[in-house]
């Protein structure tokens, strides 16, 4: 499978995850999010940046929703609930957020 971005075909797997993480850019993330009816806000970018940082600097860790809740509570200085993250990424903060962040598909079952 693939997606078209700026006249270029970008290879993805059947789930829409990038085949090559080097294809990712912030502009591509915006394009991918818009295709899923998401307009990226600063909070979306905080989650995306956290997911990318964990993956690329922490031994390819792909945090689950519980870890994202904790990290965003610390970052935003307020208690964040699972619902707050699902408001940002309704299909699953770790999986949908990871896809938009350009990370490979997670093999874990996800969830809280």
Automatic annotation (TrEMBL):
Alphabetized GO MF terms: transferase activity
Gene3D superfamilies cross-referenced by the UniProt entry: 3.30.1420.10, DsrC-like protein, C-terminal domain
Pfam families in UniProt: DsrC
EC number in record: 2.8.1.-
Record localization: Cytoplasm
Chief localisation class: cytoplasm
Entry keyword set: Cytoplasm, Transferase
Family membership: Belongs to the DsrC/TusE family.
Name of the protein this chain belongs to: tRNA 2-thiouridine synthesizing protein E
Organism in which the protein naturally occurs: Rhodobium gokarnense
